[in-house]
Amino acid sequence: xxxxxxxxxxxxxxxxxxxxxxxxxxxxxLQFGPSPIELLAALGxxxxxxxIVVWYLGRLGKEFTGGSRRPGxxx
Length: 75
Known about the structure:
It is elongated, with a radius of gyration of 18 Å. The protein has two helices and no strands. Helices cover 79% and strands 0% of the residues. Helix 1 (3-29) packs antiparallel against helix 2 (36-67).
């Protein structure tokens, strides 16, 4: 797998995770009959949470992939 393919795949995974997390709060809010403003607020909170989750998972992934490439470590 080339570097470009890997980067494209990572971007897709991040987009899907962001989409799932961003859409969840508005879908939950729909159960309680929200106003349009409340629905937009839930979407905004979902997007913010999604960005945090994607950032954290990216950081965590770099920690694991970078950990095996340290000099002096055996595999």
